[in-house]
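> call design_seq(struct)
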């Protein structure tokens, strides 16, 4: 065994495993204030799953849903992805004193506030809680639930412009 590996194993025996700050859970109950649904610029990126759920919920073709509810957004790595439109006051296009598509809302919305970057540190959580009256109050969520939501959020890849164009083309051919 290499000396560096022996040293690493010896160090690991004496260090405590690192626990996430939410290891005992977190409290959150939505207060329906709409702060996460608008009031400031932002993006609600849509995955293929989100697009399918929403277009079906509104009984629209992909093309019509995209035309009426969506915009293209620059994304990491230089790709162009689908996002919901914002109103002039920055509210989500789906917000009207509540989510008009609540049963079909995007994964990004479903997993709030347990997004990876919000739950990476106590500092990030508290910074976000300053703008969200539902954080640190109400229902207690166990670590397992938080980690499940973090995973759903991180695995929910936005659909690209090319993928949407392909979906629309296939629907036209039917």
């Amino acid at each position: 065994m290499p000396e560096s590996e022996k040293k690493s194993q010896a160090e690991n025996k004496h260090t405590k495993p690192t626990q996430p700050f939410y290891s005992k859970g977190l409290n959150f109950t939505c207060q329906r204030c709409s702060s996460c649904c608008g009031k400031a610029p932002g993006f609600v990126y849509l995955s293929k799953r989100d697009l399918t759920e929403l277009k079906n919920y509104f009984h629209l073709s992909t093309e019509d849903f995209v035309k009426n509810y969506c915009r293209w957004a620059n994304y990491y790595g230089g790709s162009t992805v689908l996002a919901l439109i914002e109103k002039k006051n920055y509210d989500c296009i789906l917000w009207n004193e509540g989510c008009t598509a609540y049963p079909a809302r995007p994964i990004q919305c479903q997993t709030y506030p347990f997004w990876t970057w919000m739950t990476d540190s106590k500092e990030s959580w508290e910074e976000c809680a300053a703008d969200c009256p539902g954080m640190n109050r109400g229902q207690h969520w166990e670590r397992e639930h938080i980690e499940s939501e973090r995973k759903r959020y991180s695995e929910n890849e936005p659909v690209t412009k090319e993928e949407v164009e392909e979906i629309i083309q296939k629907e036209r051919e039917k």
